[in-house]
């Protein structure tokens, strides 16, 4: 084994390629947009030698890659590449690999097809009234308190309740998830450390045990809900037990983690842009465009990864088979070639099509649902708490993640009526 001396350690550090940016840097996580502008000015497609991935920084290149079937998923290879061989035995990675999110056709279409109808525009529109009632009930409890942590007490609870409702999680169990967190660090390109990995495995094991138990209950006592429907598909041979668990878990996690951040990041942006807040208060018909603009301005998902399935020429560059591209949708959404004055929050934008929900075959299944949740959440807060003050709007604390971008806490107060 090589002796470690000051000289050869320094030599190794000097030879290590410099990263184009550091996805773990708290300043980057707090405000990634100056870094994105710098990278995009260099090129719409950049090789990051330290991360061992390409970075797609422009709207057009991100959009093209997301829709190009020469790019797809090689989840196992990707995980073994950033960690080591044998990592797929870890519960967290084993189950994540079986979600539709990480699958390729034809498995992807089979898994997605089982739940598409439940998330169709027609079905979701019917849920608006239920969501409005949930927002109203939640605010009835919160308004007299005069203070809340927006993230814990409102932005988390609302989407957890909505997705649990859709899945068929009993109301008394839903409360168990009001305090639950999801390990979204496992989506980042920088590997988790031992304790983060332990936490991710524990989360899958704990939530997996809950859902497995619920599947048994629904086998015995079927209900008119999504879990019963999926359990029956499984029992008919259409889904393995692990696929059932992985995809129900995906719906649960994707159904609340991101919507929570739409509400949290959105309220923060509104309070930092009082002109747009006043505009919305004066003209509530702007709510749908405001939600789209808030999704563009500070996207809850900052990048989605793809692997080249063959050597591919794109934007004048060859991406070799097996190489990974991070499509920086957060950067695409601030691309000046696509959005005039991209760093301005402007609810009057026309033809506003951010890439926050991705694109191609994995386009977000919950896009319509989340838009309705966001609209009802903002209408509820603006109308019931018009004088709400945010305490830490200057220096809020962010979750230390890159892919999923959201706040840890956001304290607010108001004068109780
Ligand atoms: C602000 C809220 C949300 C954002 C920003 C968001 C964003 C995204 C993005 C970017 C993808 C594509 C990932 C990729 O291509 O690698 C995705 C996929 C997905 N989303 Fe969402 N999402 C949100 C809310 C929801 C909700 C409420 C649900 C409801 C269950 C949901 C369920 C899913 C599912 C199941 C997929 C995987 C689809 C597939 O692989 O075919 N999402 N989401």
Summarize the structure.
It holds the Pfam family p450. The chain is of the alpha+beta class and 417 residues long. The protein is built from 19 helices and twelve strands.
Question: What this model shows, in words?
Answer:
- The N and C termini lie far apart (71 Å).
- The protein has 417 residues and is an alpha+beta fold.
- The relative contact order is 0.17.
- 50% of the residues lie in helices and 9% in strands.
- The strands form 4 sheets. Strands 1-2-8-5-3 form a 5-stranded mixed beta sheet, sandwiched between helices. Strands 4-12-9 form a 3-stranded antiparallel beta sheet. A two-stranded antiparallel ribbon has the order 6-7.
- The longest helix has 32 residues.
- The mean pLDDT is 93.
- The chain has a single domain, classed as Cytochrome P450 (Cytochrome p450, Orthogonal Bundle), CATH 1.10.630.
- Helix 9 packs parallel to helix 19, helix 15 packs parallel to helix 19 and helix 17 crosses helix 19.
How is the topology of this model organized?
Layout: H1 6-15, H2 26-30, H3 33-42, E1 45-48, E2 53-56, H4 59-67, E3 71-72, H5 75-82, H6 91-97, H7 107-113, H8 121-125, H9 128-142, E4 147-149, H10 150-155, H11 157-167, H12 171-174, H13 194-220, H14 226-235, H15 241-272, H16 274-282, H17 287-297, E5 304-308, E6 312-314, E7 317-319, E8 324-327, H18 329-332, H19 367-384, E9 389-390, E10 397-398, E11 407-409, E12 411-413
Parallel strand pairs: 2-8
Antiparallel strand pairs: 1-2, 3-5, 4-12, 5-8, 6-7, 9-12, 10-11
Helix pairs in contact: 6-13, 9-19, 11-15, 13-14, 13-15, 15-17, 15-19, 17-19
Residues 100-101, 112, 163, 250-251, 254-255, 258-259, 262, 300-301, 304, 356-358, 362, 364-366, 369-370 line the site of protoporphyrin IX containing FE.
InterPro entries: Cyt_P450, Cyt_P450_B, Cyt_P450_CS, Cyt_P450_sf
Organism: Skermanella cutis
Family: Belongs to the cytochrome P450 family.
């Amino acid at each position: 084994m090589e002796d470690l001396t000051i000289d050869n350690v320094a030599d190794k550090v000097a030879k290590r390629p410099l990263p184009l940016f550091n996805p773990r840097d708290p300043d980057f996580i707090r405000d990634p947009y100056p870094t994105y502008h710098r990278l995009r000015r260099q090129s719409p497609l950049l090789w990051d030698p330290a991360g061992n991935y390409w970075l797609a920084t422009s709207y057009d290149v991100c959009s093209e890659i997301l829709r190009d079937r020469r790019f797809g998923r090689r989840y196992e290879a990707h995980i073994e590449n950033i960690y080591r061989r044998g990592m797929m035995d870890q519960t967290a990675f084993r189950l994540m690999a079986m979600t539709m999110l990480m699958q390729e056709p034809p498995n992807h279409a089979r898994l997605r097809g089982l739940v598409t109808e439940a998330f169709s525009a027609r079905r979701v529109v019917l849920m608006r009234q239920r969501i409005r009632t949930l927002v109203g009930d939640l605010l009835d409890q919160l308004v007299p308190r005069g203070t809340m942590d927006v993230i814990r007490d409102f932005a988390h609870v609302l989407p957890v309740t909505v997705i649990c409702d859709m899945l068929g999680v009993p109301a008394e169990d839903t409360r168990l998830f009001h305090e639950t967190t999801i390990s979204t660090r496992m989506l980042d390109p920088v590997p988790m450390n031992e304790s983060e990995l332990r936490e991710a495995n524990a989360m899958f094991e704990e939530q997996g045990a809950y859902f497995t138990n619920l599947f048994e209950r629904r086998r015995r006592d079927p209900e008119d809900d999504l879990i019963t429907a999926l359990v029956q598909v499984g029992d008919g041979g259409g889904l393995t037990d692990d696929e059932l668990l992985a995809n129900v878990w995906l719906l649960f996690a994707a159904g609340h983690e991101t919507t929570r951040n739409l509400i949290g990041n959105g309220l923060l942006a509104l309070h930092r842009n009082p002109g747009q807040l006043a505009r919305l208060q004066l003209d509530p018909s702007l709510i749908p465009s405001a939600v789209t603009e808030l999704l563009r301005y500070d996207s809850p998902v900052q990048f989605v990864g793809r692997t080249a399935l063959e050597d591919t020429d794109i934007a004048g560059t060859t991406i070799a088979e097996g190489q990974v591209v991070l499509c920086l949708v957060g950067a695409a959404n601030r691309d000046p070639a696509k959005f005039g004055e991209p760093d301005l929050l402007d609810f009057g934008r026309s033809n506003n099509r951010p890439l926050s929900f991705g694109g191609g075959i994995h386009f977000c299944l919950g896009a319509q649902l989340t838009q309705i949740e966001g609209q009802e959440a903002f209408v509820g807060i603006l109308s019931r708490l018009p004088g709400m003050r945010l305490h830490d709007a200057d220096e809020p604390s962010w979750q230390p993640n890159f892919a999923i971008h959201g706040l840890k806490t956001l304290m607010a107060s108001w004068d109780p009526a």
